[in-house]
């Protein structure tokens, strides 16, 4: 099981790498956010242990850019225990959040829990009602009919469909798909949703993309 640690503090990074290697993992170490992002994108890691406070590129930015193209599980490490930070991390796509200082045994336990969940969700296809998404071939069909999507439309569809019933805020969608901070005056997310609906929902009787007023968007099958 190959892991990536992104930690700029040398002693902490060495401690984590040594401990995880001794716990049966194969752990690589990156000391900057840029190096961590390059390694996470180029290599196939089963999980990334990511420090939030990093030089050059912080953990939030790294996570946002990673989520634009890969679904590698991420465990965030931070010295801050603010609820807003935990919510931000989870909205950006983190799988768990651990506050420093922490007990090493808890870190290992959380990693194993995430990886068990990851094996269950890391599938080649996503199915919702009569909609099928082939993640690796980037092929979408509904009721047997092929649907052509742009790269952004596919990323938006996959983001919503892989977690059916979960509301995605406009801010989270904007940060993950456009690498931008959401501005209430910006309608880029709403426009993207309308275009996706025109292809995924409008030609069909049953609608899958739904709006939660004041909250965001979700996909689910409704009677």
List the domain count as a whole number.
2
Provide a count of the helices: 8
Mean pLDDT: 87
What's the CATH class of the largest domain, please? Alpha Beta
Structure described in brief:
The protein is α/β, with parallel strands linked by helices and 223 residues long.
Descriptive key words:
single chain; 223 residues; alpha/beta; Rossmann fold; Arc Repressor Mutant, subunit A; 2 domains; five-stranded parallel sheet; four-stranded antiparallel sheet; 8 helices; elongated
Describe the structure.
- One of its GO terms (cellular component) is protein-DNA complex.
- With about 220 residues, the chain is α/β, with parallel strands linked by helices.
- It folds into 2 domains: about 1-120, Response regulator (Rossmann fold, 3-Layer(aba) Sandwich), CATH 3.40.50.2300; about 125-220, Arc Repressor Mutant, subunit A (Orthogonal Bundle), CATH 1.10.10.10.
- The protein is about 40% helix and about 20% strand.
- The protein is built from 8 helices and 11 strands.
- It has helices spanning about 10-20, 35-40, 60-65, 85-90, 105-120, 150-160, 170-180, 190-200, and strands spanning about 1-5, 25-30, 45-50, 75-80, 95-100, 125-130, 130-135, 140, 145, 210, 215-220.
- A 5-stranded parallel beta sheet has the order 2-1-3-4-5, with helices on both faces. The chain has a 4-stranded antiparallel beta sheet with strand order 6-7-8-9, covered by helices on one side. The protein has a two-stranded antiparallel ribbon with strand order 10-11.
- β10 (about 210) and β11 form a beta hairpin.
- α2 (about 35-40) packs parallel to α3 (about 60-65) and α6 (about 150-160) crosses α8.
- The longest helix has 18 residues, at about 105-120.
- It starts with a strand and ends with a strand.
């Amino acid at each position: 099981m190959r892991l990536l640690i992104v930690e700029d503090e040398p002693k902490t990074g060495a401690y984590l790498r040594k401990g995880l290697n001794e716990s049966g993992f194969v752990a690589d170490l990156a000391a900057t956010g840029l190096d961590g992002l390059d390694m996470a994108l180029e290599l196939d890691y089963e999980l990334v242990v990511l420090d939030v406070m990093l030089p050059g590129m912080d953990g939030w930015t790294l996570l946002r850019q990673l989520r634009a193209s890969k679904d590698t599980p991420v465990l965030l490490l931070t010295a801050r225990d603010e609820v807003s930070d935990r919510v931000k991390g989870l909205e950006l796509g983190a799988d768990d959040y651990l506050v420093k200082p922490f007990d090493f045994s808890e870190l290992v336990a959380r990693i194993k829990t995430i990886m068990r969940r990851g094996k269950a969700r890391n599938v080649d296809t996503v199915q919702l009602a009569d909609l099928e998404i082939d993640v690796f071939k980037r092929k979408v069909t509904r009721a047997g009919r092929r649907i052509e999507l742009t790269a952004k439309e596919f990323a938006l569809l996959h983001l919503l469909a892989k977690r059916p019933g979960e509301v995605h805020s406009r801010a989270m969608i904007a940060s993950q798909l456009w690498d931008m901070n959401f501005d209430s005056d910006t309608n880029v997310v709403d426009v993207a949703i309308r275009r996706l609906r025109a292809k995924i929902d409008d030609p069909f009787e049953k609608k899958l993309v739904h709006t939660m007023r004041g909250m965001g968007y979700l996909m689910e099958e409704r009677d």
